[in-house]
Amino acid sequence: MIRLGYKYKLLLSFTGIFAVFAVVMVLFEMHYERGLRIGDFRNRMSDYADMVGREISQSGGVLDSARMKMFLQCLPSEVRFTVIDRKGYVVYESGNMNGRVEGNHADRPEVSNAMKVKTGSYDVRHSETLDADFFYFAKAYGNYVVRVARPYDEGVRNILRPANVFLLFVLLVLPIAIVILIYISDSFGRSVSRLRRFIDEAGKGGIGYDEISFPHSELGDIGREIMNLYRKLDEKGRQAKTERERLLKHFQYLEGGIAIFNTEKGIVYANPRFVQYVNSILPVPTGDVNTIWTNDAFRPVSEFVGLNSRELSPGEAAPVMRFNISAGSARYAVQVVVYNSSDFEMTLYDVTRAEKSRILKQQMSNNITHELRTPVSSIRGYIETILECKGLSDDRKRYFLERAYTQVIRLSELIRDVAIITKVEEAPETMHKETLMPCEIVNDVIEELDSRIKDADMQVYNRIDPEIKIFGNYSLVYSIFRNLVENSVRYAGRGTEVCVECYNSDDDFCYFNFYDTGKGCPEEHLPRLFERFYRAEEGRTRELGGSGLGLSIVRNAVTFHHGNISVRNRKEGGLRFLFTLQRHEMK
C-alpha cells in the first residue's frame, strides 16, 4: 500500500474539504435561487389570479362569458385560468368554448390548498385532460377559487432554472484556492518533513543539528524548540552514559567485588571479582549470582535488607551492615548498603591477606618483644652488676661492659633488620632503584665483615664477573649478600669457605649461586629457614647472635627485585642458595 507524505495528505485533505464545502454551497445557492425564481414566477401568476378575481368582483360575482372572453384578451396567450366554486366544480374555463368543464377539482392539490391558505398555492403536475405539464397557481376569492395555469414548457423551465454564475465563480476560485493550499501545505510540509528527518536521525543516533533548519513559522518555532530540548537531553544522556561507563570501568577494576540488586533481590549488575568471590564462598561454582540467597552465609544480608526496606526520611543515613564470611582458608569482608528505593548494594573484599598480615605483624611484634627481652635484660644485668658491686676489678668491669656492648650490637642489628623488613613490605615504592655492579657490592660486604671472617678462619671468594650489571636498590642488594655471608660466618663453622658467583644471565635476570662448605642444615628445617625469627637450633643459634631476621630479609629483598630464591644442602657439605635478580626495570 502506497503511503502518502504528510504534504500530500494535507493537500488532499484541504482540497477535499474545500471541494465538499464548494459543492454544498453550490447546491444551496442553486436551491435558494430556484426558490427565488419560483417565488417570482408564483407572484406573477398570483397577479394574474388577482386580475381575474377583481374582474369577478366587479361583475358582482356573476360570471359573464362574453365579458370573460374580452378579459381573457388582457392576459398573455399562454396563460389560461379556471374559476372553481367552493364545492370543486368548474364554473368557468378559459380554454373551454362552452365555458363549463365537467368533473370535480376539489382534489387537485393547488385547489385544496388554496381553500386553506389565503396567499394561494401552486403545483407543477401533468394535466390528464390536456395531456401536458402545467404550472398551476390557485387562490380563493369569496365563493370562488381562481386557478391560473401556464404550460410547463422549456420557456418556463428556463425561467425557473437557476443561473450558473455562482458555479462558475466556484470553478474559478477552486484552482486559485488549490494553488494557495499547495503553497501553505508546502510550507507546512517542509516543517513536518524536517521534523520527520530530525526524528529519523534521532532514532539512528546521529543528528546533524547544524544541518537541520526550520522555516520561520509557528510550526518551525515548535520544531526548533523540540530540537533544542532534545539536544539538551541528548547532551545529558551522553554525559550520563559517559559517567555510567566510567562507573562501570571503576567497578571493573575495583579491588573488591561489587553487585547491585533490585527490591526483589534480583541481580542488576555484578563485576567479575564479585562473581569470583561468590564462587569461592559457594560450595558449587555457578554463573547465576542469585543463588547466593539459598546459601546460609548470605542469610544475614537477606534479613538485613528485609528489615530496612523502607523510605528514608530526608537527611537520614542509608542503613549499612558489615560482617565477615570465612570460606576455607579465605576470609571476606561484606558490606551491605540499602538505598532509599529499597535497592541495595553489596561489596565483597578479600581480607585474607590483610588478616594474615595482621596476624603476622602481631606474631612479629610478639617475637620482637621476645627477642628484645634477652639483650635488654642482659644489658640491664651487666650494668646493675657494675653499679652495685663496688669492689669489682677493672678487668671484671671491662668483661661486663664488653658483654653489654655485644648485646647492644645485637639489639642494633635487630632494630636495623626490622626497619628493613617494614620498609620493603609497607613502602616499596619509596625505595630508589639504579644500575648496580654486584661484584663491587660483594667486595664491600667482604671488606666490612673482614675482621669477623678472619676470626672464623674462613675464606670468601667473589667470582662474579665485574662487568655484570643489575637494576635495583643498593641497600637491599647489599643486605642480601651481607646477610648470606653473616649466616655462613655464624653457622658454617671455622675453616670453611664461602663462594659467590653469577653462573648465568639472560635478557631479564642474573642467576646467582651462593654456597659455603660448612656442615649444612637438617632437611626438615630447610622449608622454614626464610621464616622470621626461625632458628633451627634455638639455644645454639641464640648464643651465636643474630636477629633471626637475616634470611627473611634476603627473601623479601629478592622478591622486591622480581626474583626467586631457594636453599638446599650441598652433597659436598654446606648450604647452597640459588636466587635471581632483575637486570633492568620491569614494566
Question: How is the secondary structure organized here?
Answer:
Layout: H1 6-58, H2 65-72, E1 80-85, E2 90-93, H3 109-114, E3 121-127, E4 132-141, E5 144-151, H4 154-160, H5 165-204, H6 218-252, E6 257-261, E7 267-270, H7 272-281, H8 299-307, E8 320-327, E9 330-338, E10 344-350, H9 352-388, H10 394-426, E11 434-436, H11 438-448, H12 450-455, E12 459-462, E13 470-472, H13 474-491, E14 497-505, E15 509-516, H14 538-543, H15 550-560, E16 565-569, E17 575-582
Helix pairs in contact: 1-5, 5-6, 9-10, 10-15, 11-13, 13-15
Explain what the structure shows.
The protein has five domains: 7-160, Beta-Lactamase (2-Layer Sandwich); 166-247, no CATH class; 254-309 and 317-349, PAS domain (Beta-Lactamase, 2-Layer Sandwich); 355-426, Signal transduction histidine kinase, dimerisation/phosphotransfer (DHp) domain (Helix Hairpins), CATH 1.10.287.130; 431-582, Heat Shock Protein 90, CATH 3.30.565. It contains 15 helices and 17 strands. The protein has helices at residues 6-58, 65-72, 109-114, 154-160, 165-204, 218-252, 272-281, 299-307, 352-388, 394-426, 438-448, 450-455, 474-491, 538-543, 550-560, and strands at 80-85, 90-93, 121-127, 132-141, 144-151, 257-261, 267-270, 320-327, 330-338, 344-350, 434-436, 459-462, 470-472, 497-505, 509-516, 565-569, 575-582. The chain has a five-stranded antiparallel beta sheet. The longest helix has 53 residues, at 6-58. It is rod-shaped, with a radius of gyration of 62 Å.
